[in-house]
Amino acid sequence: MSDKVLLDYGSGGRASQRLISELFLKYLGNDELDRLNDAAVLSLSGKIAMSTDSFTVDPIFFPGGDIGSLAVHGTVNDVAMMGAVPRYITCGYIIEEGLPMADLERIVRSMGEAAEHAGVKVVTGDTKVVPRGACDKIFINTTGIGEVIADPTPSGDAARKGDAVLVSGTIGDHGLTVLGTREGLDFEAKVQSDSAALNHLLVKLVRELPEVHVLRDPTRGGLATTLNEITKSSNVCCELTETSIPVRPEVKGGCSILGLDPLYLANEGKFLCVLPAEHADKALEIMRADPLGRDACRIGTMTDANPGKVVLVTQLGGKRLLGMLEGEQLPRIC
Length: 334
Prior knowledge:
CATH 3.30.1330.10, seven-stranded mixed β-sheet, four-stranded mixed β-sheet, about 30% helix, PurM-like_N_sf, Hydrogenase expression/formation protein HypE, HypE, PurM-like_C_dom
């Protein structure tokens, strides 16, 4: 193969077949994908959860991950938030002519490693090559499918008065890392994306605690925007305690320099859990037993004081409303 992606690789001809067999099947191959049929035949039982997503992150490589692992992690996590065991993923690639083949191989290899760790199979896909300038390096579209094991299924409209609000770890890591890498910023302390597959931890959580009301991953728009979505759907108020929200010192420092609020920065390896307060301690015990949840903590409570609102109790004891993210704080973040 050429050392750069050529338009010929998207033609459907001999070059396309070489790209599929020598690159994609090398890292993503399995008993279903290897058949190279027009569609995958899958085995599932009962209710399924399904999610689709597109990834256009800039830069495509960053500390803690790349667009390939991010695509797998983001899709797996979305399915798992529905109390489901992710099983299968589809991947569509739109690749700019001229992308170094070494970069494409690195991305596909990363996807294969992420899928293997998450325990999912990439069962079908598609590749298109577009002329230079028609896209920025590479865009990836994915769909994930999983078997729902939670009963009832966690849902964004299921939060109730008195529920505890938990977060699985520190916030803002991914957003600040991508921005810093994109702009070539050198923070005093290194920051790294939290991109990770959360499905193994989430499956354990919903199996041991079927009382979980809401599971959400605070990606674009961050913690504050995600909580606003939940409170509006559930018609409750979320009261957060500022001193309880975990933020790494290096993220706080970077946000202070750049004038950013970590509550609105994207996360790719954290989740929110809303459940009855009497089960909060057990949930935290389960989360903290996993490396991906070791910094889990309770950050707030659902009330009926201001339905549809998110209220932050500040360090000084005052209160302020946290609205939805206005505009695009950080474009091309995932």
